[in-house]
Amino acid sequence: AMIRAAAKNHAHVAVVVEPSDYEAVLTSIETTGTVSEPLRRSLAARAFAHTAAYDGAIATWLERATGTVEAGLPQTLRLEAAKIADLRYGENPHQAAALYAPTHQPTTGLAEALLHQVQQGKALSYNNLLDVHACMGLVRDLGADVPCAVIVKHNNPCGAARAPDGALPAYLAARAADPLSAFGGIVGVNREVDAALAAALVETFLEVVVAPGYRPEALAVLASKKNLRLLTLPVTAPVAHGLDVRLVDGGLLVQATDATIVAVADARVVTHRAPTSGELAALDFAWRVCKHVKSNAIVFARGPVTSGIGAGQMSRVDSVELAVKKAGGALSGSVLASDAFFPFRDGVDAAAAAGTTAIVQPGGSVKDAEVIAAADAHGLAMVFTAMRHFRH
């Protein structure tokens, strides 16, 4: 109440709610003997924003406490964010861009890392930040129990792998999955980068490397690529709750974040043949990767390594054919994950022709029986998760 009253009386009162404004106030007093009128107006604007956010936080809490928040979505969406960094430009050079973080709460995650955990390299761009966000989402879904590596290009993984004997073998396997697309990519790992991994990283032109840490000898190797950005981010579990907000013409689309994934071991076997234990492990890996691929999404994997990824196609069979092309046809003994159901049997036929032996998909098509019959005809194992992961 006192802050708001002071802000209303800014013609005569200077109200300061941000420590970052202390220096400007002191400089004005030292040079002019008073707080200048333009600065008082600026301080008042900050004060009103501060009290508005405070009132909004209280209203949001009361909505939750009184049960007026439905399905985790508030009746009134209150967004209060402050600019923390200007970016060189947006998706294209003619678009202005900046990074904002929620006010009145600690800056965390990628925003905090951008401020304090960039080890080297030029400033990260708008596109870099989108790709880092996508990369770390998949790294976290692959889990921290086994070393893993992910390479992202244009918001899609082009290679991903787990390797129990270390991050270096995982990175080499992920890179080998699609070495052409890895050029200029974003790499994320869930282990500290050592000198051996650093030496492998500098063999390819990369935009950003994201890891929970870097050993001093690794930093010395990576320093040879002065424009390569090195970002430190902790590998933690995915955020269980949150909102995904997108701007559309005339409004905002808001949804709960897609933070849930069904373990393939819990999926329903729908074919005559059940997956082997090896197929189940590979299917679970492919299913986790597929969740992070733009729809229509198809992921082939052999063991804990991607073999071919088809992303963003208008028909599912096109995604299968693209993934087969990316794999160079080397898909004998692979498994396949699909982010949504197969509407026709053609995708299953194409996968079988490529050499896959097992499929995981959500199910739910009116032609499920036809698709299952196709899998049985080819001797494939197929499981339904009953949960899709569209990504637009």
Give a written overview of the molecule.
It contains 13 helices and 16 strands. The two termini are 44 Å apart. 38% of the residues lie in helices and 20% in strands. The strands form 4 sheets. It has a 6-stranded mixed β-sheet with strand order 3-8-7-6-4-5, with helices on both faces. Strands 11-16-15-14-12-13 form a 6-stranded mixed β-sheet, with helices on both faces. The protein is of the alpha/beta class. Helix 9 links the parallel strand 7 and strand 8 (229-232). The radius of gyration is 25 Å and the shape is globular.
Low-pLDDT segments? none
Which descriptor suits the 3D outline?
globular
Task: Using the CA coordinates, give the radius of gyration.
Answer: 25 Å
- Return the average pLDDT rounded to an integer: 92
- The number of distinct β-strands equals 16
Q: What does the main sheet amount to?
A: 6 strands, mixed
Features:
16 strands, 20% strand, 392 residues, globular, 6-stranded mixed sheet, alpha/beta
How are the SSEs placed, and which strands pair?
Blueprint: H1 2-8, H2 22-32, H3 37-65, E1 81-87, E2 97-102, H4 109-116, E3 118-120, H5 126-142, E4 148-153, E5 156-162, H6 167-177, H7 179-182, E6 185-189, H8 195-201, E7 206-211, H9 216-222, E8 229-232, E9 243-248, E10 251-256, E11 268-269, H10 277-290, E12 298-301, E13 306-310, H11 316-327, E14 335-338, H12 346-354, E15 358-361, H13 368-378, E16 381-384
Parallel strand pairs: 6-7, 7-8, 14-15, 15-16
Antiparallel strand pairs: 1-2, 3-8, 4-5, 4-6, 9-10, 11-16, 12-13, 12-14
